[in-house]
Amino acid sequence: xENPTLSFICPIILFLSLxxxxxxxxxxxxxxxxxxxxxxxxxxxxxxxxHTESWPMEGSNEYYKTLYHHDSVHHGRKLAEYSSLTFAExxxxxxxxxxxxxxYTVVQVGTPNVTLLVALDTGSDLFWVPCDCxxxxxxxxxxxxxxxxxxTYSPSASxxxxxxxxxxxxxxxQNQCSKSSDQCPYNVTYLSENTSTAGTLVEDVLYLIPxxxxxxxxxxxxxITFGCGRVQTGTFLEGxxxxxxxxxxxxxxxxPTVLHKSGLVSNSFSMCFSRNITxxxxxxxxxxxxxxxxTPFIINKKHPIYNIGVQEFYVGNALVKTEFQALFDTGxxxxxxxxxxxxxxxxxxxxxxxxxxxxxDGSNLPFKYCYNARxxxxxxxxxxxxxxxxxxxxxxxxxxxxxxxxTTGKFVGYCLAVLQSSSISIIGQNFMAGYQIVFDRxxxxxxxxxxxxxxxxxxxxxxxxxxxxxxxxxTPSNITPIQSPLGPxxxxxxxxxxxxxxxxxxxxxxxxxxxxxxxxPNSTSDGTHLSSFFLHSAxxxxxxxxxxxxxx
Length: 552
What we know:
By secondary structure, the chain is of the alpha+beta class. The chain has seven helices and 28 strands. It has a 15-stranded mixed sheet that branches. The longest helix has 14 residues, at 61-74. It is globular. Mean pLDDT is 75; it is low at 1-30, 72-77 and 461-552.
C-alpha cells in the first residue's frame, strides 16, 4: 500500500523535514513552505480570505527587513539597553589631512585600555588596528606632524584579549586553516591601488559611554571582534589610517552589527559633517529625527553596502533625467561619478557658470573644472546641485566646491569637487558637508538633515570642547585629495571589487570616572596626551582644502 502523504503549509521555516513512524508501518511526511511563498499566499487567500498583494516580493528590501524582524522576535532579543552609545573619549570626529583626509575619532580597547586614533569608514566592514607588526605605518609624531605618538595594541598585553578561532562564524577564511582550533586569518583588499591589511582576528573590549547623557559616568565594556593587522600595504603605509580603521558596513563582523546583536543599541548609527568638512560627531544607535529626509538602501545580497538610487538630478536649473546607484562612503574625501553621469553633471555645470576657466601652472589638482570667481553671487550659483533619490526626497550638496588660494594667501578661484570614475559612483564627504547622516540598518534606509555638528558634540571630560580653529590656507600645488583606502571591500576574505533647521540640541556634558576604565600602566601615558590633542589641538591641523568661511 502506498504511504499516505499529508501536505501541511507552515507559515515560517523553523524545522527540517520530519518523519513519523507508526506500528502499522505507515509513515507521514510534512511539506514545509516559506511564509511568503506562492503556496502560502494561495492558502491564506483560500482559508482566511486575506489579500496577499501587499506581501513583500522575494528579494526586495521589504522582504529582508520583514525576515529580520521575525528573527529578532523568534530569538527573543530584548530591547536595546541604551538609546545610543558613543566612544569613551566622546563623540567628536575630525578630518586630518596629514592622515589621508579621513575622519578620525579616539577609541579605547583592551585591558589595560589602549587609546587609538582610528579612521571611520562606511565603505568597509572590518575594524582593524596595527598589531604585532611585520609591516605597518610608523606611529611616531614627526611622521605626521602631530604633537603626540600613536599607541599600539597587542593581544598579549591585554588581559581581556581572546583569539578568534577558525570555527567561529565570523571567520571567512576557514579554508586557509589547517584545523578548526587555529586562529582565524583575515585579508582585506581596498579599492585604492595596492592597499590592503592582513593578520588575525581577535576579540577584546571596546569602551563606550551612553550617547544621550542619560547615565552620567557609565562606561560600557562591549566585546567586539576586530583585526590584529600585522601587514599593511599601499595607502596604509603612506599615512592613511596609521592607527587603524573602524569599518561601519553591514556585514556581521562590523562593530554596529555586533553592538546591535549584543542588545546594546538599535541597529543604526549617525555621522555629522560640519559645513567646512573639518569636524563632526558620531553616535551608535541614533535613528535620527522624525523630520529628516530618507531614501531606501539598495541591498546587494552578495555584497551588502550602503547603495542608494538616484532618479534624476539638477545642476542649477537644468534637469538631467538619468538613473544610477551611488555608495554613501564617509571614507572618500570627494564625490566620484561614473563616466556618463560625470559628463552630464560637469557639462551642465560648465555651461551655466559665467566665471572664466582657471588654469594653475604646476598644480597637481585632479579637478578639471576650476574657475576664477567674479563675486560671491557667482559662487553661490555654482553650488546648486541636487539629487532626487528613490522615494522622492531630494539631497542638495551644500558645498560641492573647493576654494583655492595662492602662496600669498590670496583667493584665486574655486573648483567643482567632483571626480570621474570608470564604473562606480560614490557620494563622498564633501557632499555630506552640513548634514547629519543616519545609516538606519534596521529599516534599511538612509536619513539626512541639515545640522550644526558643534551642537551635537560632547566629551567625556567636563571641559567644554573648544571652538574650531580656522583652516590654514594651502597653496594649490599642495592639495592632494586621495580616494581613501575605503570603498566596497571584502571583510575577511578575498575582495569583491565588481562594484567598484537647527540640530536636535546639545546633549549634556558627561564626566567619566577614571575608575570606570582599567588602570593604565602610567597615568601620564600617551593616551592622556592623545585625548588632549584630539579634543583641544587637532582642529589646528584642519583640511588643506581652504573653505572660505566668508562665502559660507
